Amino acid sequence: MARGPEDVGGVRCCRDCGALKPLDQFCHSSKRPGGRGSYCKDCFNLRSKASYAKRVLKSKGREVRPAREVPDGHRYCADCDSIKLLADFPRNRADITGYATYCKPCHNARGKESKQRLHGGSREYHLRRRYGIGQAEFDELLAEQGGVCAICGVEDPQHLDHDHRTGWVRGILCFNCNGGLGQFRDDPVFLAGAIAYLKGTTWQRLLIHPGVFQMCSPMRGRRPSRSS
């Protein structure tokens, strides 16, 4: 079977633009010779967009907005109606471009609105997502502790402590106590070692006469300076 003139030399003539292009510039088609379609990829994309716009107009009664010209390294944000650098958009692995649809300020604003609408605020969202309890349960647990940190007793603690292995909530701590447990990796052995270390290195004031104190040396350690 002789090939048509459009296939001579591994090229084909596009029926829309009339240009001779290599076969790999045509879309795949099992119904055409050489396994390629009659329209080059550029013309095929234009036809697809025109067909989509016609279907939208017929089914939904609205016109499709024309594609926006965006320079390389930029992206359009529909919320603020502006073209910005890709660095101004959050990363998003699910998107083919690797970036989110909305710029960082608009993305954050949408997130806050969603948290307020669905959870009543960022605080409730954070507690529910990370610990599985809400602000009401937090307040109830704090009331059971007498309104103070479960370790040092400081008033109005705001940090929810939980077991990192099981996820179970243990209590409410102040910033320092919560951070301290994290630094010691929630390990009682490390905490006991820290207590033993302090007892063995901290100088003590010993009352030897009413109103008179003497510094008592620990088992190890250096004498404190005069400013101490």
From TrEMBL:
GO molecular function terms noted in the UniProt entry: endonuclease activity
Q: Which residues form the signal peptide?
A: none
Work out whether the entry's keyword set contains Transmembrane: no
Pfam entry (one)? Endonuclease_7
The alphabetical list of record keywords is: Endonuclease, Hydrolase, Nuclease
Report which superkingdom the organism of origin falls in. Answer: Bacteria
- Organism of derivation: Winogradskya consettensis
Q: Does the keyword Hydrolase apply?
A: yes
Question: What is this protein identified as?
Answer: Recombination endonuclease VII
